[in-house]
Design goal:
The protein is mainly beta. Strand 12 and strand 13 form a beta hairpin. It has a 16-stranded mixed beta sheet that branches. It has helices spanning 2-15, 133-145, and strands spanning 23-31, 34-46, 49-60, 63-73, 79-88, 91-100, 103-110, 113-120, 125-127, 151-155, 165-181, 184-195, 198-204, 210-214, 220-224, 227-230. The chain contains two helices and 16 strands. It has one domain (2-230). 11% of the residues lie in helices and 56% in strands.
Length: 247
């Protein structure tokens, strides 16, 4: 049933591209079941594809995080241009990125330093900052269009000596679950995305809309407002000795 539903959606996407309609979503960010922030995304149609915006705010002990991201994408959901502005614990970061021939070029400004990074370009790439529901929505769309293959995540954060990186995304489909959205019972599709050795559980609705994401940062989740997964994906109790982690 799940395979049929995803195939039917792929047919509809081929007939009616996503750029023909606007989409939006509002989410609560939780740590071990306790709200610590909010996130929103919005997609708007343009003559050349569509624009997307994401806004994220997290305020908790050890982490004060604000992000604003705008993207321009083709009708096939390929990245044309990205601009990100973020503040993490009072440190400002900006990223301007776009395809450049066979590469993806990122100009990064952080802590008063400027860096230029060139990454391999892939048609199935998603620009994936922390806590960004718009990026995860795009990943779900590309997964349908590309039959869960050839997916990549551009990670605009420092990992070891790398300021930014691009990593393959492996998707695994799990049995459908159940939940309620604004009080109505719905079928919930469950995917697990493995990126650079870490897993993100993605839960989507019948129209492939992102409903919930259990993030690789321990205990963090994005939950669409009005959505309840039954039963919950993970226990909500907070361990007494757990400390907040900074993405």
């Amino acid at each position: 049933m799940h395979i049929v539903a995803r195939f039917s959606l792929a047919v509809l996407l081929a007939l009616f591209p996503l750029s023909s309609a606007a989409q939006s979503g509002s989410f609560e960010i939780a740590e071990n079941g306790h709200p610590v922030g909010t996130a929103t995304f919005h997609f708007a149609a343009t003559p050349r594809g569509y624009d997307s915006t994401s806004i994220v705010h997290v305020t908790m002990q050890g982490l004060d995080y604000a992000l604003s991201k705008t993207e321009r994408l083709t009708p096939a959901n390929r990245l044309r241009q990205v601009f990100l502005s973020a503040v993490v614990n009072q440190s400002a970061v900006t990223v301007a990125a776009a395809p450049d021939a066979a590469q993806f070029l990122l100009n990064i400004s952080a802590n008063g330093r400027r860096s230029t990074i060139r990454l391999p370009a892939h048609p199935g790439a998603v620009f994936l900052p922390d806590f960004d529901p718009g990026a995860l929505e795009t990943l779900l769309t590309l997964a349908v269009e590309r039959n869960d293959r050839g997916l990549w995540a551009i990670l605009p954060k420092k990992t070891g000596s790398q300021i930014a990186s691009i990593e393959a995304v492996q998707l695994a489909t799990y049995p459908d679950m159940h939940g309620t959205l604004n009080g109505a019972t719905i079928t919930v599709h469950h995917l697990i995305a493995t990126i650079a050795g870490t897993q993100t559980d993605l839960f989507s609705g019948p129209d492939n809309q992102l409903l919930q994401a259990e993030l690789p940062e321990q205990g963090f989740a994005l939950v669409r407002k009005g959505f309840v997964l039954t039963p919950p994906a993970k226990p909500l109790a907070t361990p007494a000795n757990q400390q907040a982690t900074v993405p």
